Every structure is written in structure tokens, then in C-alpha cells.
Amino acid sequence: MPPTLTVVIVAESLLLGDGLASLLASEPDITILGRARTVDEIRPLVDQHQPDILLVSVLTPLVSTLQTIVTARELRASRLCVSAPYTFRTAARSTTGSRRATAAI
User: Fold this and answer.
1) How many other CB atoms are found less than 10 A from the CB of residue 88?
2) Beta bridge partners of 54
3) Distance in angstroms (rounded) separating the CA atoms of residues 14 and 53
4) 58, containing H or E segment
5) pLDDT digits (tens, 9 = 90+) for 20-53
6) Which of 9, 15, 30, 52 has the most other CB atoms within 10 Å of its CB?
7) DSSP-derived 3-state class of residue 46
């Protein structure tokens, strides 16, 4: 049996966090050790569980994501994986409302 990869999920959105947890839970070699929704919830989870990976969905505002990255670096306990729930095209379209802007990306 291969070793289990341990993960703590950080997702501000309950829907996104539930989706990530459901997807990862279906993998036999991945164990979810905990979930956080804010930067303040990360440190105790990582200190307690020492996960292999801290999986972070981009938080709003982006400053929270940057604080999460700084916190993860301070803990030096986990590898960090940051995911974005949308593509750059989606972000440009929702920001500008213009399809022309997304064509340039």
C-alpha cells in the first residue's frame, strides 16, 4: 500500500471547500486532516497535524491569500499548493464585462 498524503484545505467558500474535500476524499492515498476558512484557522491546524500539503484556494481579498502564504512559510511544515477557482479569462470577463479583453489574454 502506498504511503498516504496528508492535506489541510484552506477555502473561504464552503462550497469550494466541500468540493475539494469531496474530490480528495475519493482518493485512497489522500487523507484530509482538517479544513480552514480563514488565515487565523491555519496555524493551529498545521501545528496540530503537520500535513504534507497545505492546499489553499485563492481567498478574497487577495491579501488573505498572501497572508496565508506568509503563514505557511513561517510554519515551514507543509508544502503549499495554491489554486484559483476561476481562470484568468473568467476574471477578466467578470472585471471588464468585455469579451474583447479576454481575447487578449
Assistant:
1) 10
2) 8, 80
3) 19
4) none
5) 899 999 999 999 999 998 888 888 998 899 888 8
6) 9
7) helix
